[in-house]
């Protein structure tokens, strides 16, 4: 081993490029590692039921809506008037014009022009699917 490679190795952080094994866990022949993490299990069921990409798109859209409404109403989310924009309700409406009318009705008390917001929101929901409500288990 040359001096140059010894110096390079010595300069690396201790964990860089190394794999560590925990003694007695996941040894050959012991089968897969099992975890009892109820949060992780619940998340798995939700994402399988709804499709992770669709949930992610929905979350990004909802954050965008809140940001836009804050600008339209010149206030923080907590101070915003009672207003509900239900994406699933909009997706149930068949025509863009009907969706636009429904949105404009929801924004009737906004003193700023809402046409750009409505147009952008309709463009963003185009191609989205309605999410069905999760089924409640009966005990």
UniProtKB/TrEMBL annotation:
<dbReference type="Pfam" id="PF05361">
    <property type="entry name" value="PP1_inhibitor"/>
</dbReference>
<keyword id="KW-0007">Acetylation</keyword>
<dbReference type="InterPro" id="IPR008025">
    <property type="entry name" value="CPI-17"/>
</dbReference>
<comment type="similarity">
    <text>Belongs to the PP1 inhibitor family.</text>
</comment>
<dbReference type="GO" id="GO:0004865">
    <property type="term" value="F:protein serine/threonine phosphatase inhibitor activity"/>
</dbReference>
<dbReference type="GO" id="GO:0005737">
    <property type="term" value="C:cytoplasm"/>
</dbReference>
<protein>
    <recommendedName>
        <fullName>Protein phosphatase 1 regulatory subunit 14C</fullName>
    </recommendedName>
</protein>
<keyword id="KW-0650">Protein phosphatase inhibitor</keyword>
<keyword id="KW-0175">Coiled coil</keyword>
<feature type="coiled-coil region">
    <location>
        <begin position="66"/>
        <end position="93"/>
    </location>
</feature>
<dbReference type="InterPro" id="IPR036658">
    <property type="entry name" value="CPI-17_sf"/>
</dbReference>
<keyword id="KW-0597">Phosphoprotein</keyword>
């Amino acid at each position: 081993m040359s001096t140059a490679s010894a110096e390079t190795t010595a300069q690396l952080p201790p964990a860089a490029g190394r794999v560590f094994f925990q003694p007695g866990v996941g040894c050959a022949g012991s089968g897969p590692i099992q975890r009892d993490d109820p949060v992780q299990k619940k998340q798995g069921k939700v994402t399988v039921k709804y499709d992770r990409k669709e949930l992610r798109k929905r979350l990004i859209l909802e954050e965008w809506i809140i940001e836009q409404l804050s600008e339209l109403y010149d206030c923080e989310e907590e101070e915003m008037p009672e207003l509900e924009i239900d994406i699933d309700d909009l997706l149930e409406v068949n025509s863009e014009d009907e969706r636009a009318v429904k949105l404009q009705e929801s924004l009737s008390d906004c003193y700023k022009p809402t046409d750009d917001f409505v147009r952008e929101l309709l463009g963003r929901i185009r191609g989205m699917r309605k999410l069905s409500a999760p089924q409640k288990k009966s005990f």
